[in-house]
Amino acid sequence: xxxxxxxxxxxxxxxxxxxxxxxxxxxxxxxxxxxxxxxxxxxxxxxxxxxxxxxxxxxxxxxxxxxxxxxxxxxxxxxxxxxxxxxxxxxxxxxxxxxxxxxxxxxxxxxxxxxxxxxxxxxxxxxxxxxxxxxxxxxxxxxxxxxxxxxxxxxxxxxxxxxxxxxxxxxxxxxxxxxxxxxxxxxxxxxxxxxxxxxxxxxxxxxxxxxxxxxxxxxxxxxxxxxxxxxxxxxxxxxxxxxxxxxxxxxxxxxxxxxxxxxxxxxxxxxxxxxxxxxxxxxxxxxxxxxxxxxxxxxxxxxxxxxxxxxxxxxxxxxxxxxxxxxxxxxxxxxxxxxxxxxxxxxxxxxxxxxxxxxxxxxxxxxxxxxxxxxxxxxxxxxxxxxxxxxxxxxxxxxxxxxxxxxxxxxxxxxxxxxxxxxxxxxxxxxxxxxxxxxxxxxxxxxxxxxxxxxxxxxxxxxxxxxxxxxxxxxxxxxxxxxxxxxxxxxxxxxxxxxxxxxxxxxxxxxxxxxxxxxxxxxxxxxxxxxxxxxxxxxxxxxxxxxxxxxxxxxxxxxxxxxxxxxxxxx
Length: 571
What we know:
The protein is mainly α and 571 residues long.
């Protein structure tokens, strides 16, 4: 019967091993997304999740690097060299180091969009003070220092094209170098920062980051440093890759240190190479926990793995409690565990098995209660840890006794000291009795509650590297973009209704902006007019075409009357 159970357990562990190897090799089994830590009821609805995915699809696939130097030519040259390095690495699906716009296509878009993006203050002038609008347009047309327009004067007599580009990026500080096509920014100190953008392949596992991304960025920094150029980098994939690398490094460090220290202590105490068989319960426990988590959730969060490393000590508790009496138990106790002289494996296991079963039941029940918590990572920890303990228990009870059948305990110098400590603890128990234990427990509980510090904040799970965060903030300042902004999602049945609802939300937020609780508001309705508003503006332009006195300033600078009338009718 015992042999049959052992064979069934062994076959089960082989199956779990095969499943775990397949899952790791063939699926995206490791989760590093921090939003996965949010409680299920606190997660956004389907619409917000779709919005998040749309934002992430743009941001998390892009890596931005800035090369900065007081010598502009050196900054441009270094950026070109880094771009060549990126293309050669094949980490990115595309590398944008220069922009060569199709000016004719841009002008065609500007002509088509001009009326649809006209700012509200300009629309108000056309309706209420049209002569003032054309006066300002005439002055801008003859002023060589006026804001440039992507359209020549003969293609934009009404001046609508002036507002398209400035409304598309109202806060952008990026400039275009016509000589090399590169984008750059000049900071307050006069330093030139040249922009590069790399786009990762869509098939890349963004949550885990590219394994080659961080080494490539390090090469880029070294190349820039040789030229005396500074670099800044940011991107969702950069943070994800750094988080993954840190988590893996911490997990490996904790696991390795725990194993080395544990087995160094075991070798010192038991003085036998057989103690390395105690790794079997540890390996079986970790395998069972990982396989169970993959079966239940389909993936495992990196924090579950990190938390699971704390089980190293717990998973060797069963074999240690079974083996420790061979060295530290009194002579009478050792002989009581066997049918013959000395400590023997099978009788010792039968002796401790009831205690092990009760301990296992209590500990697994404690982990099982974590299943009812709202945090997904704690539910994963419950499954991982509970099944890890079951796996370790099975390996201890079924595998270890045959492996230690001929084990002979060796005496250690401090055995006497341990027995004296055991005797001292027994006397303390007798003196304390029941009331004494209540007193000690009450004191410890009071001290624990006094020193406790309770938090329910997911930010405790996040440790953003300060250097990377500082670089992202610096890039935000140089670009004029606030990476810390938040958004609201507005839903409507049609495009026009969506624009109207956006405007309503914007008006509702204006009091917060007036109180400086919001630095600013950007919304689609600020850029594009609803079709009804466009039609209303078109009708007004037709009216103005019949009222030449309103656009008299254009005639005064030499624009023929028919030219202005045609422009108004065409618009």
